[in-house]
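Much of our argument rests on the idea that a fold can be written as discrete symbols. The amino acid sequence and the backbone structure tokens for this protein are reproduced below:

___
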Amino acid sequence: MQMNHQIVLVVSEERAYGSLLMKSIEKDFPGLKVDITDCGENALKYMRESKVCLIITDFRLHGMGGLNLFYEIKKKYSDVKIILLYNPLDSKLKDRQKMEGLFGSLEKPFLMERLMELVRRVLVNWEGKKE
């Protein structure tokens, strides 16, 4: 699987958690660029400067949360896929979003293999797109 020009953006306030996700993705998908940001506002700023194929975001973030980030990304960058990471208390909101175009979601804690399978599905689909 070729990964030229594919970027995955992890959005998490917890730097150590974001780094863990980044390292796991880079290990399973060598050559894939993975970046981290800490809030929805910074993710949108990043999107204006880079071609991102996938955003993996926590549901709960300071400022613009994962839910509002999801809406903004779908409005402005409809081809970007989003995976929402949520806590059990957020499940009702997550279910509503799934019906509205969320690519995937995982309840914390989750098996890293499940996240890697979702990432793989995004990359296979993205591979056929032209820049």
User: Anything to note?
Assistant: The CA atoms of residues 86 and 107 lie 5 Å apart. The first helix runs from residue 15 to 28. The radius of gyration is 13 Å.
